[in-house]
Each structure stands twice: as C-alpha cells, then as structure tokens.
Design goal:
Helix content: 55-70%
Radius of gyration: 19 Å
Largest sheet: none
Length: 192
Amino acid sequence: MGRPRTNDAAVKERLVACATEMFATRPQESVTVRALATAAGTSTAAVYTLFQGKDGLVREVRDRAVAGLFQDVTAVPTSEVAVEDLYALAAAYRRWGREHRHLYTVLFGGAQSFDPSGRVGDHDPVRPLLAAIDRAVADHTLAGDATLIAVSLWVALHGLVTLELAGALDGTAAETAFRSTIHAVLRGWAPP
C-alpha cells in the first residue's frame, strides 16, 4: 500500500492563500519557502511538489489574479458608446482591486514584474480595454495610438486604486478623484 497523498488540492489552496497575503504584505525576498509552508500548515516539500518552488507559487498567485481581473473586466457589457465602455471598464478594474486587495498588490505591487506594453494574450485583462479604445478611435471619439491611450489610462487608474488601497483616498474623495481623473484622461485623448 502506498503512502497517502498529503499534498492535495486543500494544501495547494492554503499555500496560494498564504502566499497571496504574504506577498501583498511583506517584501518578496522576506517570504521564504519555510515561512510559506509554516503559514499553510504544511512542509516545504509541498511547495516544491505542487509548484516546483517559490517562483512557481508566485506564478500561480499572479495567474489567479490575472484570471480574476480578466473575468471581471470581460463581464462589463459592451454598449454603443465606446467612451462609456472605457469608464465602465475602469470602474470594474477599481472594484476588482478594492475587493481583492491582496491579489491586486501581488499583481501590481512588485511580487511579479508587469509590462503594460507587452504582447496582449487572449486572456489578458487589457484586451477589453484595447478593444474599447480601438472603437473610440475608429468613431473619432479618441485620437492617438491605442497602446499609449491604454497605458495613460492604466497609469491614472493604478495610481488612484493604489492610493485608495493605502487609505490615502476614501469615501467621497475617492469617488470624486476616480470620476474626475478618468474623465480628464479620456478628454485628454479627445481629438482637437
């Protein structure tokens, strides 16, 4: 009779949950395999068996964050007005960040590098944003390079969400900053 399997789906989920919290609240270099295993109530061997090490666990956490953000932004319905869709996508991004603060921090807080100008994959959360920008450029609501528009919108939105998660913006101030900033960025790309 073989040994019972101890590194099962439950252990995997505990490791992902602990890693998500630890990577979001501590410098990545301070999060060791031993600390992860201890927090999850398992052995260091589980990290290697299930994820081939710490880097694999970081990838798993990041992949889940990307998948969750993609799911939320692709759930935003498309309307006839591309600029309204861009605002709705920004609102979905903000909502996801606020509801998944640890995943947001892991995704955009340095645990894994992020290149906003890299290749867009099929399940990349930026895909719906670029599609709405392309529509807005085609109908002459916005003018400019779609990638530059997307990066400028993301930079403003990321700054807002980061400040909000840090507690620097809250309540009415956060709502006002969100609305005015997103509208200002979109107006900035309007044709002359």
